[in-house]
Every structure is written in structure tokens, then in C-alpha cells.
Amino acid sequence: MSVQEKAGHLLYFVTKNHSFSDGNKRIAAFLFVWFLERNALLYNEGKKVIDDNALVALTLMIAESKPDDKDMMVKVIINLINNR
Questions:
Q1: Domain ranges of the chain
Q2: Spatial contact of 74 and 8, defined as CB atoms under 8 Å apart
Q3: Which residues touch 5 (CB under 8 Å, ≥6 apart)?
Q4: What InterPro entries does the entry give (predicted)?
């Protein structure tokens, strides 16, 4: 599994699994950004691979998605990371 796939799964599962009593989307977004930074994927040519507004929209989209759409959501995240 690639680092990008791991990042996608991290964002998806922390958002969807409701691991915390409050703030799951915020915590998921933070962990996602932290994970990308730790793996030298957050920036490409000095620009963030995913800007703050896109991350908010993506996290909300994941939260509202059906469990059957997990693979598609993870692919969207991977494409966002790779195409910047």
C-alpha cells in the first residue's frame, strides 16, 4: 500500500468511524495533514497539495458518503495528492 493510500484511508476512517466523542472531522483533517507532512507529501513545489477549503469540502463529503463508496472516496483523495 502506498503512502498516498494510507493517507486516504486515514482521512476516511477517522472521519467515518467516529472514534472520538466530538471533533472527528477536525481531528481527521489534522491527522491527514500531519501524516502528509511527516511523509514529505504535503507540499509540491512550495504549494500545499490540497488547500484548506478543498480539505474541508472533502472531509464533509466523506462524512456524508455511504459506506459502499469507501473505495471511491479513497481514490479521490489519492488523486488529489498525486495530481498537484
A1: 3-82
A2: yes
A3: 74, 78
A4: Fido, Fido-like_dom_sf, Type_II_TA_Toxin
